[in-house]
Amino acid sequence: MLRGMKVLFLLLIFCCWAGSAQGAASAPRPAKGTSKPTARAAPAIEIPETTFDFGEAFEGVEVEHDFVVKNTGKAELLIDQVRPG
Q1: In angstroms, rounded to a whole number, what is the distance separating the alpha carbons of residues 22 and 20?
Q2: Burial class of residue 75 (count of CB atoms within 10 Å of its CB; 0-12, 13-18, 19+)
Q3: pTM for this entry
Q4: Do the beta carbons of residue 42 and residue 48 sit within 8 Å?
Q5: Torsion angles phi and psi, residue 23, rounded to 5
Q6: Domain boundaries defined on the chain
Q7: In percent, how much of the chain has pLDDT > 70?
Q8: pLDDT one-digit tens code per residue, 53-71
Q9: What is the DSSP code string of 10-78?
Q10: CA atoms of 14 and 7, how far apart (whole Å)
Q11: Dihedral of CA 62/84/70/55: which sign?
């Protein structure tokens, strides 16, 4: 019984390894002429002020504040989703 469990465990490990190797081999590659940013040419976001306290806000009065977002990296910084918190 114990030997059967060992064989089953090794078979499971082999299947996981083979599946991950297959997935890595079939991963899409970037089209020719396009380049993926390297570690040196990656975007880097800098947000000096991450919170702002409006203090007391009255009902019906619109409040507004601008946050500065700066790309200090060497590649284009894409912001595709912003969530208020």
Answers
A1: 5
A2: middle
A3: 0.44
A4: no
A5: -65, -40
A6: 2-27+35-71
A7: 53
A8: 999 989 999 999 999 999 9
A9: HHHHHHHHHHHHHHHHT---PPTT-----STT---EE-S-------S--TT---------EE-SSS---
A10: 10
A11: positive
